[in-house]
Amino acid sequence: MTALLAVRQVSRTLVDPEPVSLLRDVSLVVERGEFVAIVGPSGCGKSSLLYLLGLLDRPTTGSVTIDGEATDDLSEAQRTHLRLARIGFVFQFHFLLPELTALGNVALPMRRAGVGRAQAEARAGELLAKLGIAGEGWKRPDRMSGGQRQRVAIARALANDPVLILGDEPTGNLDSVNSTRVVEEFRRLAHEEGRGVVCVTHDREVADAADRRIHMLDGRIERED
Ligand SMILES: Nc1ncnc2c1ncn2[C@@H]1O[C@H](COP(=O)(O)OP(=O)(O)OP(=O)(O)O)[C@@H](O)[C@H]1O
Ligand SMILES: [Mg+2]
């Protein structure tokens, strides 16, 4: 079976206003059912790598293949379509839309993918229930706790049933109880549902819970354990 995610000899450099090397010769394979943490000091390139994995940015050299599909020569519209269908993001800041309810926020990616309102809201309700916040669906984000908001953000990431889930410091604003919930959910999404989870983290608990840890330093993969 093809790997879920294959990054081959990727570099990313910026030229303007001055040359900056964000990533150098990074190669990485993630299989379905794996929970992988990316760790390393601030500024080492973790988010830059995640943006490439999430098709939010393009490498300067090298290739990114998702679910067997080479992404490098795709148009922006094709990349957006692939991202919407196969990838879910969870960030440190939840980026929920304040004017929508929790249910509306989770339904939104489905609506964007062309799912009808009733069906999108029904599935949104199921996802909120699965994350233990069924009763909060009618609330707007500013009326929810940080932990509840982050669970809404995870539900939204799962809206279109992605094979690949990407997290950038998803527990960065959470207390230890809520961090543990997020970690357990990530493990379950990988190990029970067979998705790939790649999570950038400074949080020791998250890193320890992952199947393997990729250590980055100065734009490179330094080692793995
Ligand atoms: N648009 C940009 N212009 C110039 N330099 C940038 C830009 N984006 C990132 N960098 C630099 O690239 C390096 C990698 O940044 P990146 O955000 O990937 O780090 P990180 O490992 O995610 O750090 P943190 O843990 O603080 O989030 C940093 O040195 C940063 O200053
Ligand atoms: Mg970062």
What does this entry look like structurally?
- The chain has 225 residues and is of the alpha/beta class.
- The chain has one domain: P-loop containing nucleotide triphosphate hydrolases (Rossmann fold).
- Helices cover 35% and strands 27% of the residues.
- It is built from seven helices and ten strands.
- The strands form two sheets. It has a six-stranded mixed beta sheet. A four-stranded antiparallel beta sheet has the order 2-1-4-5, with helices on one face.
- Helix 3 crosses helix 4 and helix 3 packs parallel to helix 5.
- The radius of gyration is 17 Å and the shape is globular.
- The model has no long low-confidence stretch (mean pLDDT 93).
- The site of adenosine-5'-triphosphate has 10 residues, from strand 2 and helix 1.
Q: In terms of topology, how is this protein built?
A:
Layout (H helix, E strand, L loop, with lengths): L4 E10 L5 E11 L4 E5 L6 H8 L7 E6 L2 E2 L5 H11 E5 L10 H11 L4 H14 L15 H12 L6 E5 L7 H16 L4 E5 L3 H6 L2 E6 L2 E5 L1
Parallel strand pairs: 3-8, 3-9, 6-7, 7-8
Antiparallel strand pairs: 1-2, 1-4, 4-5, 9-10
The site of magnesium ion (MG) has 3 residues, from helix 1.
Which short descriptors sum up this protein?
10 strands; alpha/beta; 35% helix; 7 helices; globular; binds magnesium ion; binds adenosine-5'-triphosphate; four-stranded antiparallel β-sheet; Rossmann fold
